[in-house]
Amino acid sequence: MISRALSIKSSITEFISSKQLLILFLLCILTFVSVFIAIGTGSYDLSIVNFILGKNTGLQNIVLLEIRVPRVILSAIVGASLGIAGAALQGLFRNPLADPGLIGVSAGAALGATTIIVIGANFFPNLYLGSFLLPVAAISGACFVIFMLYVLTKGFGYQGVTYMLLVGIAVNAIAGVGIGILTYISSDAELRSLTFWTMGSFGGVTWPLLIPAIIIITISLIFLIPNARKLDLLQLGEPEAYRLGIDVQRVKLSIIFTSASAVGASVALSGMIGFVGLVVPHLVRLIGGVNHKYLLPGSALMGACLMITADLFSRVLLQPAEIPVGLITSAIGSPFFLWLIFRMKRL
Amino acid sequence: MKHTLLIFISFFLQQNSFANDCTPANDASRVTVAGGSITEIMYMIDAEDSIIAVDLTSNFPERARSHPQIGYVRALSAEGILSLDPTIIIGEDDMGPPAVLEQINRTGVEIAIIPERHNIAGIKSKVECIAEILNKKTEARELFNTRLDPAIEKLNIASGEVSENQTKAIFILGLQSGSPLIGGVGTSANGLIEMIGAKNVLSSFEGWKPVSTESILLAEPDLILISDRGLSAFGDVESLRQHPALALTPAAKNNNIIAMDGMAMLGFGPRTIFSALSIANDILEINDK
Amino acid sequence: MSLNIKSVSLKLDDRQILKDVSLEINEGEIVSVIGPNGAGKSTLLNVLTGDISPDSGDTIYDNKPLNKISIQERAFTRSVMSQMQTLVFDFNVKDVIEMGWLQRGNSDFSSNFSLAFEAVTKECNVHNLVHRKFNSLSGGEQRRVHFARTLLQLWRPSKSNDPSYLLLDEPTANLDLSSEMLLMNILKARASSNVGILVILHDLNLASHFADKIAIMKDGEIKAFGKPEEIMKDDFLTSIYKVPIEVKHEPLRVHYY
């Protein structure tokens, strides 16, 4: 009994320092606080306190429970997905500039979604796409891109940071061509849905849409986190990781598939939101260190906080209108990206 | 098996449930408008006092811009709109995203979608539809009698004359990837050109598309219609005339370029009728010389 | 118990890299592989570790063919030190050494980590580097840290009889004299604790002084294998290296300039 408790304790505290555990705990608290503040803030006049005391009107409750809460939850899980996927991809490719957007995974997901929207509109006009079809299409698109990356890097072989980035640019361009062609042939009716993709937004999310996304993303995260230690060992290089007992091909496939699923589901629901996967892991490393047992959960939590905050700004800065959230993350992310490049000692 | 498959597929698809009809609103006291032509009409039928918010395209009349702004009609914010406490949202079928409209509708706010057709009959029914919804039928009658019907009559005559001359026209919305973005079949621009009595010579495609220099030259347009904003993408009329894609067209060479406010031309509210009349008259003047 | 390859041949890009090579490394023995560049020494090591599969022949760990041993099991049995890649992220030295600590899900091991860590870092003379960032170390210091990691991977509780093997590819490159001696002496000490060791060296004197057996490779074949005093001969070495070599005995010294 005691030895089992000890072994659970050691598997939690192994390979992670107490400072890092503290940071994770604080990030949890920060996430809860952000969720609370975000649910309580917006253009519509309502308060959570009144909700608890039962003093809200029916309409206020509807706005709170059907509009605001699903939206805040979506922004949190999308932020968490992008953050942790970014951390996992940076570790997998041993490339500090990897980000689902930069390496084309988000574009692939958008390509999948765009294809369904345009083809769907041609076969089923006037219909609004339901809960599962869009995320599935987006995830397939993301996997297709990852497959292309695999082929172009000869099985994800390490070829240097710049090569990886160039390959990502190429893949982005290819996916962009696909999206461009679909956009071109689509009628104005379809463009209505498509314009949404380029900028990203959490508006319009409802519980029926959210539940499958929560399931997909949670499952992905559950599969991703046990790879933490293996990601550490991969940093020594693939031959070394093998010699330390890691089945490298299996780890690659697992990480790639779960990252693609998480990113695909996120893009399906909220469009392309850039730079979160790039910025968040670096911030988390700056605060507490680089080992993945800390980095992966840390990136999920920090990603959630950042996204909840970005969405809050998008709703509030120009109320009652909204700024697309992708604009806000790009506005902060691009200068940070530049700083990262300058900071790197060798490219 | 087929039955099961259909049920399975229907899980993935949902019908957009707002009807395009013009029944009177239950409560039209607080209106949020999503469409510049609708705002225009509401001011013209004396319904402006019920407006509580407008969208980005509602730029006429000038004082309409002072209302709270709901932003881009295709990217609406549920909470934002609800925070202004509307009783009804009136817009066209480009309102979206659909999920947001669902959310708003579920809170009890009415949503009216005004059908749009790009011709004179379409404009008239738009006015009638809005008047019906807002219970302003008398005011609408007044508008028809004093301003619209006379203008339509003059337009019919003028466009008849224009079509005898078989004027070749194109409509440019702006620049996209370096090429002029031109209105093909099914666009509001196409409707406008037809209303004027001219011929849209770049109508072999649907929707708004960037068109190559060669295709533009082959079409030999006598007249270029362009929105003010589109013109600013080129710079000014001189730069437009000298643009490589357009410089060799008869329209550019003869300086037959007409630029106006985009919503006035393409909004397909009453202003479109007045704009069409004005353009038709301009063409006849040019041809008379 | 021993590590074996039997009749291994391997072709890469139309070149025959290994031709029917066999080698045995026994527990408690240091085998040094020497030979000119391109002889196939590193490839031989990679076949032994399981990094590469040969076209024909077998790799056998303690009487079990390698393909019957899981990747994880292999890591429990042997550890490897070879060319190092740069670390993209800023790990601490402690983190890097700790990467050699395999998770066996066995409390016999996990409770001993700090003990093992202390012991290995002191032995390799890196314990004063432990709190520094790995990327800030010099090339030689980084090598010593990797060596410590490799030793940590082989750590066993004192009562254990499980066989362990250590394979090293030019571990002394870039090391200063004292570090070089330290490393070779640690190998000697490990051998007497029954670890089987294969080490590729370029320095013929280092090899003949520390190894129990030497394998001389050239053109993908093992041209000679045996105790240093027996196989290090003037004419033979000269023909292998194409450089005039003179071997003196008592003590055994190879002269080539």
Please specify the SSE layout and strand pairing:
The complex is a heterotrimer of chains A (about 350), B (about 290) and C (about 260).
Chain A: H1 2-13, H2 18-40, H3 48-53, H4 58-92, H5 105-123, E1 127-129, H6 133-152, H7 161-185, H8 188-199, H9 207-224, H10 228-234, H11 238-243, H12 248-270, H13 276-288, H14 292-316, H15 325-343
Helix pairs in contact in A: 2-4, 2-14, 4-9, 4-12, 4-13, 4-14, 5-6, 5-7, 5-8, 5-12, 6-7, 6-12, 9-12, 10-14, 13-14
Chain B: H1 2-12, E1 13-15, E2 31-34, H2 36-44, E3 51-53, H3 78-83, E4 88-91, H4 98-106, E5 110-113, H5 120-134, H6 137-165, E6 168-176, E7 179-183, H7 188-196, E8 199-200, E9 208-210, H8 213-219, E10 223-227, H9 228-234, H10 237-242, H11 250-253, E11 257-260, H12 262-266, H13 270-288
Parallel strand pairs in B: 2-3, 2-4, 4-5, 6-8, 6-10, 10-11
Antiparallel strand pairs in B: 6-7, 7-9
Helix pairs in contact in B: 5-6, 6-13, 7-13
Chain C: E1 2-12, E2 15-26, E3 30-34, H1 41-49, E4 56-61, E5 64-65, H2 71-77, E6 78-81, H3 93-98, H4 107-110, H5 113-123, H6 139-153, E7 165-169, H7 177-192, E8 196-200, H8 204-210, E9 213-218, E10 221-226, H9 228-231, H10 234-241, E11 246-248, E12 253-255
Parallel strand pairs in C: 3-8, 3-9, 6-7, 7-8
Antiparallel strand pairs in C: 1-2, 1-4, 4-5, 9-10, 11-12
Characteristic key phrases:
heterotrimer, B: 289 residues, alpha/beta, Rossmann fold, 2 domains, six-stranded mixed β-sheet, 13 helices, C: 257 residues, four-stranded antiparallel β-sheet, 10 helices, 12 strands, 34% helix
Explain what you see:
Chain A is globular. In chain A, helix 2 (18-40) runs parallel beside helix 14, helix 5 crosses helix 12 (248-270) and helix 6 (133-152) packs across helix 7. The mean pLDDT of chain A is 82. Chain A has helices at 2-13, 18-40, 48-53, 58-92, 105-123, 133-152, 161-185, 188-199, 207-224, 228-234, 238-243, 248-270, 276-288, 292-316, 325-343; one strand spanning 127-129. Chain A contains 15 helices and 1 strand; from the N terminus they run H-H-H-H-H-E-H-H-H-H-H-H-H-H-H-H. Chain A has one domain (18-343): ABC transporter involved in vitamin B12 uptake, BtuC, CATH 1.10.3470. Chain A has 347 residues and is mostly helical. With 289 residues, chain B is an alpha/beta fold. Chain B has 13 helices and 11 strands. Chain B has helices at 2-12, 36-44, 78-83, 98-106, 120-134, 137-165, 188-196, 213-219, 228-234, 237-242, 250-253, 262-266, 270-288; strands at 13-15, 31-34, 51-53, 88-91, 110-113, 168-176, 179-183, 199-200, 208-210, 223-227, 257-260. In chain B, strands 6, 7, 8, 9, 10 and 11 form a 6-stranded mixed β-sheet that branches. In chain B, strands 3-2-4-5 form a 4-stranded parallel β-sheet, with helices on both faces. In chain B, a hairpin with a 2-residue loop joins strand 6 (168-176) and strand 7 (179-183). In chain C, helix 5 crosses helix 6 (139-153). Chain C starts with a strand and ends with a strand. In chain C, the strands form 3 sheets. In chain C, strands 6-7-8-3-9-10 form a 6-stranded mixed β-sheet, with helices on both faces. In chain C, strands 2-1-4-5 form a 4-stranded antiparallel β-sheet, covered by helices on one side. A two-stranded antiparallel ribbon of chain C has the order 11-12. Chains A and B meet through helix 4, strand 1 and helix 8 of A and strand 1, helix 3 and helix 4 of B. Strand 1 (127-129) of chain A pairs antiparallel with strand 1 (13-15) of chain B.
